[in-house]
Amino acid sequence: MWEIDNKLQILSLLQSLGLGVFYCLFYDLFKAIRLTINLNAKAIFFQDIIYFAIISPLTFCFLLSVTNGEIRGYVFILASVGFFITRLTFSRIWLPVLETLLKLILKFYRLIRWILDRLYKLIFSWGLAFIKFWQKKLVIIKNCFKKGLKKQ
Predict the structure, then answer these.
(1) To pair with 151 at 20 to 30 A between CA atoms, which of 41, 69, 86, 135?
(2) In this predicted structure, what is the pLDDT of residue 145?
């Protein structure tokens, strides 16, 4: 049995609260993606699975470090309290900022994609013109060699 004193329990209470805050801010990242990009129900379902697939091992590692892997109710309760307090307070400020930031990133991505698309089309058209030019010249050169060989 692992000995836990009161000081360590109080510290783990505060860490659990911080873990809940982190989980809320991490969830807001997924929510901002949903608000920025129109997703269907399947994509939202997979986002939720990814979210829980990430936070589950984090919770396990947290429990290993704080309570030697023993499941303690106060850890889950305080993590939930931290999540909901953050959800009701700081998340109202954080989510619009994150959504605006993601919209800017998406606009920048679309701009870069548009520029690269135009550049690709320009290079492709130049390459095509270059190939057509040399095709004509090579046909003329080939015909000159044919005529020269026929005379001999």
Answers:
(1) 135
(2) 73
Distances in Å between the alpha carbon of 71 and those of 11, 13, 43, 58, 74? 16, 13, 32, 14, 9
Residue 24: phi, psi to the nearest 5?
-70, -45
Reduced 3-state DSSP string for 85-132: HHHHCCHHHHHHHHHHHHHHHHHHHHHHHHHHHHHHHHHHHHHHHHHH
Q: What is the pLDDT of residues 11-34, one digit of tens each?
A: 888 999 999 999 999 999 999 999
Let me know if 66 is exposed, middle or buried by CB neighbors in 10 A (0-12, 13-18, 19+): buried
Which residue is it, tokens 């044919």?
146
In degrees and rounded to multiples of 5, residue 2 shows phi and psi of -90, 130
pTM over 0.85: no
